[in-house]
Task: structure prediction
Amino acid sequence: MRRRLATRALVRSAMSRRTHPSPAAQILWDRIRGARVDGIRFRRSSVVLGQVVAFYAPRQNVVVEFDGVTLNEAALVAAGLRVVRVPGDLPTRLDDALGAIRQQAGRVVLDRAEPPPLIQGRRTRSTARQEPTATVTPLQRLESELGQQGRRVGQDLRYICPLCRSRRRTLAVRELPDQNLWLYCFEGCSKPALLSVIGWSYRDLYARRES
Ligand SMILES: [Zn+2]
Result:
């Protein structure tokens, strides 16, 4: 309950920052909105990991914040996000700010060497024949970590993504026949960042078996 109240307060604070942007925030937003800079999609005044940030590009894992605004950068960096600080005295240094954003966002795209999605994984016949012996399935553990119950949409269960926290339940999770999990956020959140927010490693997506 306390957590829900805190979330509500955060969303309210994000909304107020969106409806009453600082002059610098408005100037920068006019330049980066609608994927105008290198096709990078930014959200304005977003809640990321329990913090309201000026701009957030979920696909590139980049957070943009003005100098002097308090932010727990360590928590963001630990989750695999990059933080770009821009001067508050825009527009005089607008081009510098745009350059920094471009550089960080571009770098992240190049850096993203994720393992292939688990759904493409092919297991050998000998391991495929093993019966799962896990008493708690990855899905059950995930739901307890997220504190949510999934809503079924086709083959998937949908959750509020703990990273972008979009209320449209953009986190799709599929339980495969062997109880391993496949997950994907439609907002483009990267899998390493997502797992890190949940406190998981890739191994946690697999059902545990006695061997
Ligand atoms: Zn997400």
Remarks:
- Confidence is low (pLDDT under 50) at residues 108-134.
- The chain has two domains: 2-111, 118-205.
- Residues 118-205 form one domain.
